[in-house]
Batch of 2 targets.
Target 1
Amino acid sequence: MHKVHKALFCCGSRPELIKISPVYHHLKTAVNISPLLCNTGQHTDLLTPQLESLNIKPDYQLDVMREGQSLDQLMERLFIQLPGIFDQCQPDIVIIQGDTASALAAAIIAHKKGLPIAHIEAGLRTYDRTSPFPEEIYRQNISTLTRWHFCPTEKARQNLLREEIQEDRIFVTGNTSVDMIMKIHRKIKNKPYATLLPRKGDRPYFLITLHRRESQGAPMIRIANSLLDFAKSKPEFDFILPLHPNPATSHMIRDLLGNQENISLITPLPYPQFVQLMAKAYAIITDSGGIQEEAPSLNTPVIVVRNTTERTEGIESGCLRLAGTDKTPYYMN
Ligand code: UDP
């Protein structure tokens, strides 16, 4: 009889769940590994609808989110709640993804308990600690604690080598969100639009998502005003914006964009429907990290409304264009 090793995934945000999904399901088929999931609850509203569409059921559930809490308060709740889960589960390995507070907290606790950490999406860097914030700081710290680093690209591997991470602990595996999107796209590409999408006929449309913490406040207002001008100047296009539930952005976006006829503000979509919308969009305007990886796989161009990006491969390939957050809409003419 083989010993069954417990692999504990710790995550709590929508993109983490989407990106661990192919690894989790693959490990389900292994005879001597038992994948388990701790959902920290960092994105309750966004993550719950995704669990069903990705066919994942958490084994452990935390409750760390409170309205209006600071990053420090979130970290404090993670540090209070996560160690008990580790004690209950007794994992052999902890698997984390990306650069969230949940990932960093799990890495620190696993390290303190002497557990090896595997990090998916390792090595992404802007080397600007303010952008994306706090993700750049979190991922740099995670790399110092990780045993096995799974990089999406050679460039990410080079970043880790420069940081003197041991070469034989770094593996270039490709991007799990690309695996995921190709799988979903094959399944749904010929299906009709979901009925909940507010589409009038077959007009071309821009798909928009906005949520970055470092853009909240003045940059987000500049982005929203630019979008409003753009939508007014392009009445032949629709603009579809699934609103991130974070009240820090959603109230302002509703106020500024809610009355423009060709802009539709909708609730966040389950992943398969969102993939379908991305695939058929004329272009995507976003500050999301994950969408910068997914859209090029669907051949949909992306305007990135951020000042920096760690997905420089997409810029070099011509699929992404970095537009910044100032109101300089050169791409809108
Ligand atoms: N996404 C989704 N439904 C939506 C909007 C986004 O399933 O209505 C997915 C998207 O395909 C990508 C992920 O959510 O996989 C991106 O999440 P987000 O932009 O919140 O986070 P980031 O990638 O910036 O960390």
Target 2
Amino acid sequence: MQLLDGKKISKELRQALKGQVADFTATYGRAPRLDVILVGGDPASQIYVRNKERGCQKVGLSSQSHLLDESTTEAQLLQLIQELNANDAVDGILVQLPLPQHLDSAVMLAAIDPTKDVDGFHAINLGRLVSGLPGLVPCTPLGCIRMLETTGVPISGANAVVVGRSTIVGKPMAHLLLQQHATVTVCHSRTRNLPELVRTADIVVAAVGVPEMIQGDWIAPGAIVIDVGINRMPDGKIVGDVAFESAAKNAAWITPVPGGVGPMTIACLLENTLTAARQREATRQAP
Ligand code: GUN
């Protein structure tokens, strides 16, 4: 068994990005810029936003955080999003989720200019992914693909089983794998024969949010296991959606939790910000 070390892989990705960001900055006389909007004081979200700022700094991206009061109205948030859409200096806009209950995240996400949607959550970008068109892809599934690529094991022709069908991870993950020519099965809470299906997988991606639901003896010998789950147990321990110890006995490659997919998500957000900036500059120069 080999560990898919997200800390190490994300560091390498950030290192590569740093050079590409420097090239962009030299070419266009400005660094790509990410604007992050946080509404309210959720402690976990505050940490995420701080980590995103730090990530930007490390690779030379410019970042601006907008910390709004919990009482912010829908009209006020929409106005900020529209200002950032119209601001030519802004390449990426991210609205940190979850939003306070009185704000409708679907409405807010739909308001973001799809060319600046570095989360890849806008229906236009999800539609582009399904259609095989270039666009911005959700960061966590993109991070999973980047990790798979480091194994050197071909995705093409592999049997991939994605457990979980969220719009943020499961569905885009399935489409990214399909784009890379895997045979993809998507499982969810109503799947009848989950253990049986997981046993057919060369690649397992677990994104259900149920601690250690995927058992070790479901993992076929030699499979690659990507665990997107981050579950905090009553004793404070963080575990994934896969029973790591037993799964590691069968897997050829497996991600640890924490230190697996987690660090890749931010690295891919930085990658998306550069992608968005490049795409905007490319269209600007088109006749
Ligand atoms: N909250 C937790 N993860 C994410 C993410 O990837 N994007 C946004 N916008 N909010 C989040």
